[in-house]
Specification:
Elements: H1 3-19, H2 37-55, H3 73-91, E1 96-99, E2 102-105, H4 106-128, H5 136-149, H6 173-181
Antiparallel strand pairs: 1-2
Amino acid sequence: MSDIDLLAGILSKTGDLVEGVRPDQLPLPTPCETYDVEALRNHLVGWLQVFEAGCEGRAPEGDPAAHVCGDDPAGEFRTAAEGLLAGWRTYGFDRQVRVRDAELPAPMVLNMTLMEYMGHGWDLAVATGQAVPFTEEEATEVLARAQVTLPPQFRGEGKAFDEIVPVAEDAPAVDRFVGFLGRDPGAARPAA
């Protein structure tokens, strides 16, 4: 599977999850304790716009942490996803990409994007009672990339990621992936 195909599949599935959120689900908690469903949806769209701008060599408009979706969050998500994919197709992966205040190697930015949208896609699916849509092949590939992209110094109290949650080696790849991100795939899921 090519990098573009992998990213396109994950973004398409996450866009479907964004579209599947009902208005009454917005205040529900998510497995990512920082966000309720509405805040997570805003985060997903705001950061996708940042990744898209950087991939196309533009400065992002606004702060992704302050992004609030309009009347069509799924449309906003899909527009940014199409722009991001177009940027990767046009400019490729042999370059530096600006992500807010940092210039990072394009492969690292791609891996960060894959981790972000599969991880938070899982959060959104679990919080809203939707099926987790990612395939075994997608999750296996993203887990392998996460294992080389996410160093231990970003884990622990007060950091971006929790400690790894041990998951059986024969568990589905998406469970092993979210365990690697610091989520417990077997924990009680929030009510939808």
